[in-house]
Each structure stands twice: as C-alpha cells, then as structure tokens.
Specification:
16 strands, Alpha-Beta Plaits, alpha+beta, 4 domains
Length: 804
C-alpha cells in the first residue's frame, strides 16, 4: 500500500483485520467453495509437514466471503483488503503488509489462546462464557455454551445453555453466513464509516462464535473480540510504518470521574426547564447518557488526532475505556498534547463537575504480549491511570480564567453544566432519547430529534429516528437497524401507555373527579410516556388480581469487585480479547438483555441508567421488588453460577410523588449498606439480606398471600403480628452479633409465634392443606430468620393493601 496516507492505511488494515477470520463462520456452515477459490489453497494455506495437506482452510472461506461482497469498501482498495485478510497465514515473502497482518494475528492469538487442561477432540461446537472462566472457573455450575446466534437479547439467544451438537452449530453458522452476505453487500460513505460498519456487522454476527475451534485451547474469546484486537494491532503497525517484528505499542486508559455526583445533581433554583420533579427521571436519563457520550467523544478526539479508526478502542463500558495505540514517540507526543487539550476543555465545559482521568501507559513490544507477560503490561497501564486519577489535571487548574485547585473562578455566576442553556439541552435530550434509534456526530446537513445539536469537546451530536445520510453515525439499538450499522447501544426503556392503560386511567379519573369538574386536559394518551403517579396505578397484581399499593420502588445495583475481577480474575490468562469480552459481556447484560426483559416482563419500569456494570430502575414497587431477585438470578445464569460474579443492590420504596432526587440518594445509601455488610446482598426495608434469604422471603410472602384468601387461616391482623415477631427476631440477632444482651421478649419471638398460631389460627376443614402449609412454613423459621419473616410479611401486606 505504498503511496497511501496514514488514515487510509490504518483503515485498510482495520477492515482486513476485522474480516480475516470470517471464514470461521462459513467453514462450519459447509458453504460450497468454487473451484477458483479452492485453487488458491497453495497460496493462502500453510502446509502440514507431516501430511503435506493444507491447514487453516478457513482462509479460503474468508476469501469466498470477500469475493462475493458487493461493496465499494468506502473507497478503500478492495484488492488490498482481500490480500491482507486472506494471506495472513501464508504471507508472500516480499509483501511486508501481509507480514504485518500475520504479526497482528500472532500478537492477538499469542495471549488470547489459553491452553485447556485436557483436550477431548479437534473442534468445539460453541463459545464458552468468558465470565465462567474467571478465577479458573471456581464455583461454576457445570459446562455451558453461549448460543451460536446473531447478537440478540432474549433469554434463549443471550444466556448460556447446554452445549449444542455439531449439527446445531453448523446450522447456526449457516444462518450467520446469510447475515455476513447481507452486511457486506452495502456501500459506505467513507473509509471511517466502512470500518465502523464492518465492526458493527462483526459484533452482531461474531459475538457468539468462538475464535479458537480447537479443544486444546479454552474457547472463551469470541471471534468478534479476537478480530477487533487483530484489527487494532494491524492498524497500529501499518499506520506507524514499523517493521512487523519491531513495532511498539502503548495502552491509553481513560475514565470519567464524579459520575454519581453529576447524575444526581439537582439545584431547584437553577431548574429553568419548567418540569420540576416530574422531569427528574428524564434528567437522570439524560445525565447518565451524557457521561457515556463524553467517554466516547474522548476516544474520538484521540483517534481523530492520530488518524486512526475506532477499532483501537478495545472496550468502553461504565465510563472507562482502553485504547491500543502505536508506541512510537511521535504518536506519544500527539497523545500528550490531546490529553492537555481535553483536560482544559473538561474544565471549561463541565466546570469540574466531571473529571477526566486519562493516562498513557509505558511502551511495550511483542515480547510483552505473550500469555505469560501480558498481565504485567496491562497492570502497568492501569497503574498509570490510577496515578493520573490521584494527581488530577494539575497543569491547567492553575492557569488562565478557569478551574483552580481552590474553586471555580470565572465571569459567570454558576458552573457551566448548571446554566440555563445546558439544563434546557439536558431536558430535551432526556425527552428525545427513548425515541431515538441513531446518533450522529458532526452531521451539519440534517435535522434531528433534538431542538439543537449538543456541542461537546468540539463535536456536535444529534439524535435521529432514521438512518442519517451524512457524517458519522451509530445505531443506538439492535431493533430495526441495518445489520452493518456501527453500534453504540444505550439502555432507555420507558413505560408507554397502551390504549387499555389510557382508558383505565380515564375511567379512574372520571370516577374520582368531584361533581361538576370539567374535562381533564392532562389525561394520558396512548403512546405517551407514563408519569410516575400514573404508572403505579396500573400495576396489577397477577397473584391477587388486584392492584398493589400505589408506591414506587427504586432499585440501584452493581456488580461486586469488578475492578478486582478485571485485574486478577484471569491471572496468567490476561488478554485484550478476554478482558474486552468480560467488559462487553456485562455491558450487554445491562444495556441489552435487561432492557429486553423489562419490555417483555416489567413494562412499567423505567431505566434511569443501565450499562457497564450497574443500573438504576424506577417503577411500581411490586414489579421492582420481583425484578431485583430476577436480575440477580439472570446475572448468575449469565456467569454460569460463578461464585466470583455477584451483585449488590439497594431497594427503597416511597409514595409516587416523592422527590426523585431523594429517592436516588436513598437507593445509593441502601446499595452502600449492602456492600458494607459484605457484598452479594440486597438492602431492603431497612435491613440487609443475603440473596438466598431474600428468595426465601419472596417465597414465604407468596404463602402468606395464598393463605390470606381465607381470613380464618391468615387475616391481616395476623400478618401485622408476623411483622412484629420478625422485628423482634432481628433485634435478638443484632444483639447476638454485637455481643450485647437481647431483651427477653425478643428472644422468645419464635415461641410467641408458635403460640399465636395455635391459639388464633382456626382449623378450617375446607382449606386443610392450605392451613397445613401455612403453619409448616412459619414453624420452620430458624432463630436467624427474623428479617426473612418481617420482609415477607411487609411485602405481603403492601400487596394486600392494593385494593383498599
């Protein structure tokens, strides 16, 4: 590729790297090879010295995929892409760019391919879940595979299941091949858009396909993650012009600091949107998305300055990103210059409410990319990022008319993100985001959903409900978007009124309206986003057939010790592909799978934010309560029951008109209480419970509900007494833990419960089995089950109050 500029070389290597192993989808599908492709075997495939037969025949299927592609590749050289992608196992001796691709594949494979403890064959039939391999698979519930399907978020497509047969694997790959053909039969507006579209295509079709197909290796790195790493290495070497064996690299790590304070920041005196508390969910959604957007734009600024494509960002989740960059000194100087600019712009545009922690790790070469050495290489980059976070952007804090170490000074009376124009922009963003399907950057010729594009870090961002014609753009959802779309998935589920909802609310309001009242102009119409005070009225209890108490539930949760998992969970097996897989796997769980589950099972629950490794949800209290246990169960299934992948959560209840800012703070405090108590727990109703105890409480509350159908078995007065016995049990347990002396009445709570049941629960001939089960479940409670009883009785009482 002599004579081409740096950006074109980098993009060409990136596309070839993304597609170099696409034949691993076609080969198991047994796609017929034309004779002219078969004849390329001697040029593309290495030869087994023992048998004299060709090996790595998947490259012939890669050649077929590229040969049948009807695309202009965004103006890139199609012959160069074909040659680089197909000759990486047997490069021509005089073609240095083919040697670059070979080196990139070896660098990625060298630390992605962990040896299996024992080999049981020559092929695998699916991808092993990467989370299940953390800490050498400690505590995993048996072997499972990720279903070989296009990226989708229903349970059958997303959660691991039993290993599939080879025939099923072949059939699944045949379906994916059809998508490959569809995605590569497109024209692209530019080289950049070509790279990003091919990356989006590979994410959709190769995220659930193993990169390694030999059971001599652990097949827990996806073909998508491996291909993206190869693309990044190839683009680094190709763009730098270094010889394949002499290339140097650096890792850039950046993250956003101050996220929680920014998301929950609300100053009523400065709220010029006119929405007040009614717009708080919208504001929280907008602020959460803005953090995600800022992280992405930081990556864009760095890569644009270096004329490098987006594949250099190996993962981006939870406000933290990692980029692989060329390691030559010229590139490093440019990166340091961009870092200084970004620090100054963050100070100017956020006023210190958000902080950019960014650092460039030390230079490393091929020898530091081996499976044995890469962990130390990666930790060195993260140490540099930790130092940057502690020091802060000191250089610009003390210069000019801006942020200083002792506070904000400037001509304006408030921080930039508290000013009227920003509050209006955030309100508009939160309002439009749920209906957006695409996002564009620096698209100057098309109108979008936002009244005005958002300007950040020198870029203009717009939302769209249809595919943009100009500029850079990304799909925000998998639904109804082209298979070769660049992707930036967001969690934005909101409850919308159905026609039945609107009729029901109108009937209720007409019934409750005072005589002579006029028409209600505030009535909810079909398709409108439901406000909190309306959606709590629509939550019908499936067990009782009545409405639950009209209260809100707020759930805040995150994955425990994710930093430790990323740093030490794969010791001796650390790799870009494996760690990118962990990050992406969790991000898709919260942004994709959970969003789908809400739409299917809990449609009245709002997503305030979800992605990375955490979430915040608001909805009817009953739905959110049931959802808390379901999310923990789904995450456990996603990690194959791995004991090292756990969730902590805080759940709070309140009236529908409660200030959302106060609810968010209360949920955060509850989450911190769960973490402080040892993690892998839920804080609810003022107590912290292990998840197993919460499951038992939910099970017991269902028994109470069923028993309450017969007042002779379980009247409401008895449920109130059960709550009192539970509180006594909690006090007795707390005294024992603290070494104090418990009150005698508290110590006798189980005896008092047993006496109460014998004295006040009458024998009912018609419901003998119901009565027997009711008594048995209460009598079997142990001395430490006071919280289980109180939580079960409280939830049951809240549900029974719904029809009052």
């Amino acid at each position: 590729m002599e004579g081409t500029d740096r950006a074109t070389r980098a993009a060409t290597f990136a596309v070839a790297g993304l597609l170099h192993d696409v034949g691993k989808i076609l080969e198991p599908a047994r796609v017929p090879l034309p004779e002219r492709i078969e004849r390329m075997s001697s040029m593309m495939c290495p030869t087994d010295r023992r048998t004299d037969n060709p090996t790595h025949r998947h490259v012939l299927f890669t050649a077929l995929a590229l040969d049948r592609a009807e695309t202009d590749w965004g103006g890139l050289d199609s012959a160069a892409i074909f040659r680089l992608a197909c000759n990486h196992h047997r490069p021509s001796g005089d073609m240095t760019d083919e040697q670059v691709m070979q080196a990139a594949d070896r660098l990625a494979s060298g630390h992605d391919r962990a040896r299996a403890k024992e080999s049981k064959g020559s092929r695998v039939t699916g991808l092993l879940p990467v989370l299940a391999g953390a800490y050498e698979g400690a505590g995993v519930d048996g072997p499972s595979q990720v279903p070989t399907r296009r990226l989708a978020f229903d349970e059958e497509s997303f959660l691991p299941a039993s290993a599939q047969t080879m025939d099923a694997y072949r059939e699944a790959c045949a379906g994916l091949d059809e998508l490959v053909q569809e995605g590569l039969n497109n024209s692209f507006a530019s080289p950049d858009l070509c790279v990003e579209s091919v990356a989006g295509l590979m994410q959709r079709v190769a995220s659930n396909v193993p990169a390694s197909r030999s059971t001599a290796e652990v097949p827990d790195v996806s073909l998508y993650d491996h291909s993206r790493v190869v693309a990044a290495f190839a683009s680094c070497i190709g763009a730098s012009g270094a010889a394949a064996g002499e290339a140097r690299f650096r890792i850039l790590v950046h993250s956003i600091g101050g996220i929680q304070d920014f998301i929950f920041r609300f100053i009523p005196a400065l709220d010029v949107t006119g929405s007040g508390e009614k717009g708080r969910a919208r504001a929280l959604r907008a602020r959460s998305f803005l953090v995600r957007l800022l992280s992405h734009l930081v990556t864009r600024r760095v890569l644009d300055r270096l004329s490098l494509p987006i594949v250099h960002e190996l993962f981006d989740a939870g406000g933290r990103s990692l980029l692989l960059l060329p390691g030559d000194e010229g590139v490093s100087r440019e990166v340091r210059s961009v870092i200084d600019e970004l620090h100054a712009e963050f100070a100017r545009e956020t006023g210190g409410l958000l902080r950019l922690d960014i650092a460039l790790g030390p230079s490393f070469g091929a020898e530091e990319c081996s499976l044995d050495s890469f962990g130390a290489t990666l930790r060195a980059a993260h140490r540099a990022a930790d130092v940057a976070r502690r020091l802060g952007p000191v250089a610009h804090l003390r210069t000019g008319d801006g942020w200083r170490s002792d506070g904000w000074v400037g001509r304006d009376p408030s921080l930039p993100l508290d000013r009227a124009e920003w509050l209006r922009a955030l309100d508009d963003l939160g309002r439009r985001l749920p209906g957006a399907r695409f996002l564009s950057i620096n698209n100057t010729d098309e109108d979008g959903l936002l009244k005005e594009p958002i300007s950040l870090l020198g870029m203009r961002v717009q939302l769209h409900d249809r595919e943009p014609r100009e500029g850079r753009w990304m799909a925000l959802t998998l639904n109804d978007t082209p298979v070769a779309s660049p992707l930036m998935l967001v969690g934005t589920h909101v409850p919308r009124a159905t026609p039945d909802d609107a009729q029901r609310l109108e009937r209720d309001e007409s019934r409750d309206a005072p005589a002579g009242a006029g028409d209600n102009d505030d009535r909810v119409r079909p398709g409108a986003i439901l406000p909190f005070d309306k959606l709590v009225l629509l939550d019908e209890d499936p067990d009782t057939g009545t409405r639950s108490a009209p209260m809100l539930g707020v759930l805040k949760a995150d994955v425990d010790r994710l930093g430790r998992l990323m740093a030490y969970g794969y010791t001796g097996r650390e790799s870009f592909g494996r760690l990118a897989g962990v990050s992406r796997s969790l991000d898709l769980f919260f942004k994709g799978f959970l969003e789908h589950a809400l739409a299917e099972r809990h449609r009245l629950v709002y997503t305030v934010f979800a992605g990375g490794d955490d979430l915040m949800l608001i909805g009817p209290w009953r739905s959110v309560t049931m959802l808390a246990g379901e999310i923990r169960g789904w995450l456990s299934r996603h990690a194959c029951g791995h004991a090292g992948v756990t969730l902590s959560a805080g759940l709070v209840y309140a009236q529908a008109h409660s200030p959302i800012g106060a609810l968010a703070r209360a949920a955060e405090e509850a989450l911190e209480a769960a973490k402080d108590a040892g993690r892998n727990r839920l804080s609810v109703l003022g107590s912290v419970m292990e998840w197993e105890a919460f499951d038992r409480a939910l099970d017991l509350h269902r028994v109470l509900l069923e028993s309450a159908k017969d007042e002779a078995v379980c009247g409401r007065s008895l449920i109130y007494r059960l709550m009192r016995y539970g509180r006594a049990g909690e006090r007795a347990a707390a005294a024992q833990v603290s070494g104090g002396r418990a009150a005698l009445e508290d110590l006798k709570w189980r005896a008092q419960l047993s006496y109460d049941l014998k004295r006040n629960v009458r024998e009912v001939e018609a419901n003998r089995d119901l009565l027997k089960n009711f008594r048995a479940r209460l009598v079997e409670l142990g001395p430490g089950d006071g919280t289980v009883l109180r939580v079960a009785a409280t939830i049951a009482m809240y549900r029974l109050r719904g029809d009052e």
